[in-house]
Amino acid sequence: MVAASQVLDRVLVLEMVRVTEAAAIAASKMIGRGDEKAADAAAVEAMRAALNELAMDGTVVIGEGERDEAPMLFIGEKVGSAQGTGPKIDIALDPLEGTTITAKAGPNALAVLAVAEAGNLLNAPDVYMDKLAVGPGYPPGVIDLNKSATENVKAVAAAKGVEPHEIIACVLDRPRHEKLIAELRAVGCGIMLIPDGDVAGVIATTDPSTTIDVYMGSGGAPEGVLAAAALRCVGGQFKGRLLFRNDDERSRARKWGIEDLDRVYDLEDLAKGDCIFAATGVTDGSLLDGVKRLKGGAMTTESVVMRASSGTVRWVKGEHRKVG
Question: What three-state secondary structure class fits 190?
Answer without folding.
Answer: strand
